[in-house]
Amino acid sequence: MRPLTLRRLLLQCSILVLILFVVVVIAVKFGAVPVSLYALGRDLWHVLLGQRADLSSDYVLIIKNIRLPRILLGIIVGASLSVAGTSFQALLRNPLADPYVLGVSMGASLGSILALIAEPYLSVSPAFAALLTPLGAFLGAGATIGAVYFLGRREGQIDSATLLLGGVIISSFLSAIIMFLMNTLSGNLRGLSFWLMGDLSTPLQKNAYWFLGIGFLLASGAIYTTAADLNLLLSGEKEAMHLGVDVPRVRLVVYIAASLLTGLAVSVSGAIGYVGLIVPHAIRFIFGSDHRTLLPTAALGGAIALVFADTLARTIVAPTEVSVGAVTAVVGAPLFIYLLRRKLS
Amino acid sequence: MKAFARLRLRSAVSAAAAALLLCCAALARSQSSTSPLSSASPVFREVTDETGRTVRVPQPVRRIVSLAPSLTETVYALGLQDRLVGDTDYCDYPADARKKTKVGGAINPSLEQVVALHPDLVLVTKGLNRLETVHSLDGLGISSYATDPHTVEEIITSSKKLSDVLGVPEAGASVAGEMQHRLADLQQRVGALAAKRVLFIVWHQPLISVGKHTFIADALRLAGAVSIVDSEQDWPQVSLEEVARLQPEFLVFADSHSDSAPPAVEMLATLPGWNILDAVNNRRFAVISDAVNRPAPRIVTAIEDLAKQLHPDAFVEKPENGKEKMEKENPPPNQQLASRYSFSLDVLHDHMTISGGRVCAR
């Protein structure tokens, strides 16, 4: 592995930031309502020069209040899922690990739904009530990855095929419970199928973006402190331990932080699959698998991928919207099969 | 050297984090400086909608967006079609409603498209639209008015209230008066007769019928029928066994195009298990307009139509209405059966995915 230089990291990141900027511009331009980038740029320029007080009201409402918040949500959720996927892949030493495939997203969904059911019965202040669903999602994600890890272990070592099978089975078990809850409980739970497929269309409260952004920075920062250890872990848990890595500590930090990332993402956007699978693979293919550069570049890559997928989701059959989860799954599932076959052969 | 690189890396990471935070702050500030669009029209009237929300309605209401087919029909019935600037993909009646600018489905309308139409008021209905849509519109400073009728009587009062909110109370009174008049006439004819026991088929695979708290169940009652399904749930899935035990006298289908396609009962007769029902074997059924699926003024026509098919004797002084209809409903079967169900499926889809939505979006 080449030694890490700031130059290389900055170079890789700035390339991706540039791509992200282009994708964001595309996402701002396209949508159910056509927007002229030239006119927008001209108006922005006039505002900067002080010749106009504000943009015309069309831009204000559509771009500032609908598209940009949605793009921001896509950036945070995409980056969270991608970092979570990258860390699961490193920790489980399995290139097919992904929050969705391992059932962690489904666990977070169930946690959110249970929190939603419990909310009326718990007399908590409104400020705390808003935190209940992300908290439920985090606990659900954490419990699921714990169960999958337990199922995937054989004689002290993680068995790749058993791990994936465990994830698939837990995922279908959890979705059966969700189905059961949706069928038996009346009222607003029946409509959750829309959210379950993955959806970025509803603007959140302003505070929620801060909450998500800070949560993402804290959790991915925590994972980043273990980046060098994750590199050593690639050669195996025992080997890493001999090389001086405090494996139980790394495992704990990464599991908690990755569960937090998945929980946050799922609680606002439902279970969007395969972003955590495709993106880390693409980034590794282009930039190599040093986690000290992989983690930040994968975060940027996840943001690019999800913002792009969401732009597709809202423009393919505009003004009708497709679930963004459907778009990522259509692209991601075939890639998953390809990776699986390559791994088996 | 490695330690140095690590140090530099750390400062780079923190710089990146700071930059991201700055971006967030800039965006948040630019968002807070936004003023709602509707400030252009300064006069507001406060009304309470049928879900109990207090709504500030700009006066006069010149631009309306409807997010439900029933509301689109009501707006047309009130003669306000020129003020309707947008509706949903499913708004297909009257035919002119298809030509309006579409804002997507009722469940997932495109907020952008709604905003671009500059509506003074967006009309929603609790039974079909999602709460999140209403919250999003609130956040964008766009007024929305929600209806929530559960009986035919409530459809009448709801239309009346809506006409008042939209500033045309006379049109509402006349629409309501005509509906009440026709229903009273119907009541005279079939009110005293024994109600026919019917199975209203929303969808057949799986079999879905209507619960007792729906306006459709109420519409059946007014037509001199009673649903054999007595469920608390609005759109209950019913087992064929249970239906066989209850043996409905008639099956009732709602259909969007009543003349061309063959009766749906012919297809049911070919499905395994359905010959357990006498109504299927004896072809005892009624096909009425899909207006019965929509809580709008046109539902009265569907109720009359059903009453005529179930109680033809009550309409003997106008025999052509009852008998011809029954004969017309039994043409030879053909292969286009699926098309008969297309609309019912839309409605079912809409109803099955209503009112829930996201977990963390408050």
Explain the overall architecture:
The complex is a heterodimer of chains A (345) and B (362). Chain A is mostly helical and 345 residues long. Chain A has a single domain, classed as ABC transporter involved in vitamin B12 uptake, BtuC (Orthogonal Bundle), CATH 1.10.3470. Chain A is built from 14 helices and 2 strands, in the order H-H-H-H-H-E-E-H-H-H-H-H-H-H-H-H. A two-stranded antiparallel ribbon of chain A has the order 1-2. In chain A, a hairpin with a 2-residue loop joins strand 1 and strand 2. In chain A, helix 3 crosses helix 12 (275-287), helix 4 packs antiparallel against helix 5 (126-152) and helix 5 (126-152) crosses helix 11. Chain A is globular. The mean pLDDT of chain A is 85. In chain B, the strands form 4 sheets. Chain B has a 5-stranded parallel β-sheet with strand order 5-4-3-6-7, with helices on both faces. In chain B, strands 11-8-12-13 form a 4-stranded parallel β-sheet. In chain B, helix 5 runs antiparallel to helix 6. Chain B is α/β, with parallel strands linked by helices and 362 residues long. Chain B has 2 domains: 37-148, Rossmann fold (3-Layer(aba) Sandwich); 193-352, Rossmann fold (3-Layer(aba) Sandwich). Residues 1-7, 19-39 and 322-362 of chain B have low confidence and may be disordered. Helices cover 43% and strands 14% of the residues of chain B. Chains A and B meet through helix 1, helix 3, helix 4, helix 5 and helix 7 of A and helix 1, helix 3 and helix 4 of B.
